[in-house]
Amino acid sequence: MKTIQIEKKNEYVVVQLNRGKVNAINHQMVKEIRQVFNEFENDDSVKGAIITGIPHFFTAGLDVIELYSYDRPKMNEFFNDFGGMYIQLAKFSKPFICAITGYSPAGGCVIAITADHRIMAAGEKYTIGLNEVAVNIQISSNLVRGYSYWIGEGKANEYILSGKLLNVDEALTSGLVNEVCDMENVIARAEIKMQQYLQADPEIFKNTKYKLRKDWLESMENDPKIDLEQAISLWWKPEIRNRMKAFVESLQKNKAVS
User: Would the pTM of this model clear 0.70, i.e. be above it?
Assistant: First the structure.
């Protein structure tokens, strides 16, 4: 694995996203996440999974600089895999905890909302949320439903349309995250929660998790193709490409300075 590291514990695994300074998500990371979670789902020795990042960055979201360089076939493949990853993680039947180690906008939030429990590091500058509208990326119906599942339709509507990123206190108050603690305790708290989940009979946990998510999960099968085609079409819209180019150039300039 090039973008993630896996630590096997007694009954569960800790997956660390580990790709550069800000942990940006590229196609390689998406494919690796999909691969390992497919293995975890089918491995009876793995009872649950914790996913985390590096200090200060769970993940800064999609690697827009790399994605901007993809040609049409590659971008189509990426959108398909990214949407598939989200559905796969949301349907992961075993205990699943997200230990958020800092910034978690857009793609980071996409991963986080699939978990059963989210613990976020305290920090005045850390943010989380679905700000796709603000960066000219089409959000899918599946993501809207997932966001709404945790924070309610009204707040999801307000935050998504405004491209709002929530600070740690707002994320806790809204229900987007369940706990906040110091950075050095995030993994430990996640492991405590995992041990709590593992006390339940695996079949009872699996069945109950499905019942709780039933409407959300079943709705995912209705329109992913339509969403995918729309996102791809808008990605290549000339006006959006121009804005994306300016955004990428600003990111490259900041990267060069730092």
Answer: yes
